[in-house]
């Protein structure tokens, strides 16, 4: 049974070149050559091991930013992030979360009674 299923799926993996229809090419907005693309792939694999919880989109964004900007520009971006206030005020966030937790625990107690 498994061999039949494997045969069916292996048939689906065949690349079909259709005349006059170009194959999909990955975006390359920074015009990396083949060596640079291989270097990027290797760096992203290392980043995936080190930073397991970071989505690939953000890892690629950081790699491209570090690769295509000099250190002074990166330091300028860091300074801007540290000095710009957040859009929302999070100073009382923990207090609000405690209120929500207390409200739900009180509701659970009332439901049990």
What does this structure look like?
This protein has 113 residues and is mainly α. The chain has a domain of 54 residues. Helix 2 packs across helix 3.
Helix-strand sequence: HHHHH
Number of strands: 0
User: Structural class, please?
Assistant: mainly alpha
Give the % helix.
55-70%
Distance between the termini: 55 Å
Q: What is the average of the pLDDT values?
A: 85
Number of helices: 5
* Shape field: flat
Described by strand count, sense and barrel closure, the largest sheet is: none
Percent of residues in β-strands = under 5%
Radius of gyration: 25 Å
- Regions with pLDDT < 50 over 5+ consecutive residues? none
Q: Layout of helices and strands, plus pairs?
A:
Blueprint: H1 2-12, H2 34-50, H3 56-68, H4 71-83, H5 93-112
Helix pairs in contact: 2-3
Provide a concise account of the structure shown.
This protein has helices at 2-12, 34-50, 56-68, 71-83, 93-112. The protein is 65% helix and 0% strand.
Defining traits:
113 residues; mainly alpha; 65% helix; 0% strand
């Amino acid at each position: 049974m498994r061999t039949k299923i494997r045969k069916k799926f292996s048939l689906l993996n065949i690349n079909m070149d259709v005349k006059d229809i170009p194959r999909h090419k990955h975006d390359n907005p920074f015009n990396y050559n083949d060596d640079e693309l291989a270097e990027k792939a290797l760096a992203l694999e290392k980043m995936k091991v080190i930073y397991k919880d970071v989505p690939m989109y953000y890892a690629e964004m950081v790699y491209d930013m570090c690769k295509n900007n000099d250190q002074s520009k990166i330091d300028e971006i860091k300074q801007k992030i540290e000095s710009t206030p957040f859009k929302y005020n999070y100073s009382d966030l923990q207090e609000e979360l405690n209120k929500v937790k207390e409200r739900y625990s009180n509701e659970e107690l009332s439901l049990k009674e």
